[in-house]
Write a structure and sequence with these properties.
Rossmann fold; 4 helices; 152 residues; 7 strands; two-stranded parallel ribbon; globular; alpha/beta; 5-stranded mixed sheet
Length: 152
């Protein structure tokens, strides 16, 4: 390959980098609770749902980039059922609503009992990882109005 062709190929690649970078899905590294969400104050303070869910999405979708501020994918935690007492206080669940490029979804995951999860926050973190997988899969082919995980 001649030097001129290599230079041209390199120049095209360098010029295309900004468009490739802008094609990534961006997601706030900290998502909020909806104003209607009834979440125990202890869960809000001690559990890391607001950062665990976006981190789980990014861990499962190679094109998701966590950012400060708003992202192109918006997520809101709409429901958390997590009575204290870990496995002894019954089922726990988390519901998230999201929107990306004009398409929306509702995702919900629940855990009935997991004695090895490490209490209420541990169970919620396990649920967060499942939600992250569900949302990452949805991003591969977003369908408007989709119900993910246990929301079906």
């Amino acid at each position: 390959m001649s030097r001129a062709i290599r230079f041209t190929v390199a120049l095209v690649f360098v010029c295309a980098l900004p468009q490739l970078a802008s094609a990534a899905v961006t997601l706030s590294q900290k998502v909020g609770f909806s104003s209607a969400a009834n979440v125990r104050e202890q869960v809000r303070k001690e559990c890391t749902l607001q950062t665990a869910i976006p981190a789980a999405v990014a861990d499962n979708a190679s094109d998701v980039q966590l950012v400060e501020g708003k992202g192109s994918l918006s997520l809101t935690i709409t429901d958390v059922h997590a009575p204290g007492g870990g496995v002894f206080s019954g089922p726990k669940w988390v519901e998230v609503k999201g929107r990306y490029k004009g398409k929306s979804f509702r995702a919900k995951r629940l855990s009935v009992a997991d004695p090895f999860a490490g209490g209420t926050c541990g169970i919620l973190n396990k649920i967060s990882r499942s939600l992250g997988r569900d949302i990452a899969t949805w991003l591969e082919s977003p369908q408007d109005g989709a119900e993910l995980g246990d929301a079906k």
